[in-house]
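FIELD: query
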Amino acid sequence: MPKPTKDIPAEYHDILEMKCFPHVATIRPDGMISNNPICLVWDGKYVRFSTTKGRAKYHNLVADDRIALSIPDPRNIWRYIEIRGRVTLVDDVDRSFVNRIARKYMDMDEYIFDSPGDERVTVTVHPEQVSAVGVNPEYNDGQVPEDWTKG
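FIELD: result
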């Protein structure tokens, strides 16, 4: 198992540059963990994602800025990045960041799925511990072997 670091190894940058489908874990007020899928943008240093001020994820992060992300390679689910750290939250008043997400993931110039009055926030993840793992390279097509689907 590779030793954790604060930096994402260069050989794993490709995961962050593509349409990957990470899950983000935040801590709820009752101490339980909440885990949700997100879309992200990576600028070469930071992972960022968007949320609204009405979502539990936002309220969880305002109360406790600790976060963990699990980011699998869509082509090979056994190759992934795990990031643990803290976040900063910045209002996305002009919606420029959420529109970057829409361009990357939806091939749309504008994100159109918010309800009237939703306020967008950009979440920036500041890594404190990063693990990058790659196992079972024979499954590079990302497909689960047929025999695994049988009970």
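FIELD: remark
The longest strand covers residues 76-91.
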